[in-house]
Amino acid sequence: MCRGAVLGSLVLGLLAGPAHAVDRGRPGIGPDTGPNAPARTAPAAPDPAALSGLLRTALSQGAPGAMARIDDHRTSWDDHATVHKAVEGVADRGTGEAMDTADRFRIGSVTKTFSAVVLLQLVAEGRLDLDTSVDHYLPGLLPDDRITVRHVLSHRSGLYDYTDDLFARTVPGFEAVRTKVFTYRELVAKSLEHPLTHAPGAAYDYSNTNFVVAGLLIEKLTGHPVRTEYENRIIKPLKLADTFYVHPDTKIPGRHARGYLTPDDAKGALVDATDQTVSWAQSAGALISSTRDLNTFLSALLGGALLPTRQLDEMQRWVPAGAGQGYGLGLRRRDLSCGVSVYGHTGTVQGYYTYAFTSKDGLRSLTALANTSNNDAVYRTMLGTLESAFCGKHAKAPGTAG
Hints:
Layout: H1 48-60, E1 65-73, E2 81-89, E3 105-106, H2 111-124, H3 134-137, H4 149-153, H5 163-166, H6 170-177, H7 184-191, H8 209-222, H9 226-235, E4 260-261, E5 271-272, E6 288-289, H10 291-302, H11 309-315, E7 319-320, E8 325-327, E9 332-335, E10 341-349, E11 352-358, E12 364-370, E13 372-373, H12 376-390
Parallel strand pairs: 4-13
Antiparallel strand pairs: 1-2, 1-12, 3-6, 4-5, 7-8, 8-9, 9-10, 10-11, 11-12
Helix pairs in contact: 1-12, 2-8, 2-9, 2-11, 7-8
C-alpha cells in the first residue's frame, strides 16, 4: 500500500484541453501497449531557439506574455537538472512587468493529474477500487450505477460537461461566476440537467464533471478537503513551493503572471481574469503553480516517486483521445512528429494556457504558459513547444505534428 508520496522508496501511509469530440475505441490493454501504443523513441536535444521563436509567435497572435522551462535530468527525476528557460512579453499589461519563469499562474486542467494521483494513492491503500460504481462510494450521486471510478478518471462516464453551458458566451459567462462559490454537488447537478452523452464506458468524451466527481470521492474517502490531500500527498513531499489550492480565495499569492481572457468579439479588449474563485472548476482545475513545480511534479510522477508501479501502470491504460493522443487516468499522452511520446496534461482556465509534459522516464519535463485564453491560434502555437523541447531540430514544421 502507498500513503503519501514515494520518494526514492515507497513511503507508507493525484480547463481543460479543447478536445470535446467523442472518439470511440477500447482502452489499451496495458500501459503503452495495444493498437494505440506510442513509438519508443528517445527525445532529441531541445531546440531553445525554436522554443523562443514559438513564444514570440504567440505574442504576435495576441498573448501578452509567454514562457517555457525545460528541466533535463541526467539519471533520475530528483538529480541535478540542466535547465533551459525562454521568456517573452509581459506578465502584467498594466505595469509592463516582464514575464519570468518564476511567476506563478493558474494551471487549469493540469489539476486533474493531481486529483488522479490522490485517488490512485487511495487505490494503493485499498480504500478505493477503480472498477467499482461511483454510487457505491457516493450513493445516489449519479443517474447510472454502471459509472465506475475508472470511467470518471478516463472521461468515459458520459457525464455532460456543465462548463459548456456556463461559458457558452465567454466573457459574460466568466463574469457571472468570477466571484461565485459552488459546492461540488451544485456543479454535478448542473451536469445532470442533461442526459448522459453516451453509455458508461462506451467512448472518451472530455468533461470537467468527471473531476468534480473525483473531488467528491477524495473528500468522502479521506474526510479531508482536497486542499489537505494535495498538500499532504504531493505538495509537501515534493517541496512544491509555488503550488497552492486557495479556493474559494480569489488571489494568486506572491509573484505571478496576470491572465487575460480574449473576448468572443475579435475587436473587444482583453479582460483581466486573474482574480477569481475558480469555484466552477475546483478539483477539475483550480490549482496554482509554476513552471518549476509542474516539471518537478511530472518528473516525479513518471519517475515512479508518487505511485506504486501497479497504479502508475493503471494511469497509463490509454483510450484514443484525438489524433496522436491517448488519455489514461487523469493523464494525457501526446505523440510527437519525431516518434517521441510525452505524458502530462494541458490546462485552460480564463487567462491562461498551460502545457505540462514529461518524457516516459520523467527525465525531461517541459512546462509552457501563455497568459491568455480563448485564442485558438495561441493554443496551437504553444503546442509546438512540445516539439521544440522533445524533438529539437528533428521536429517537423509547425502544423504538421499530430
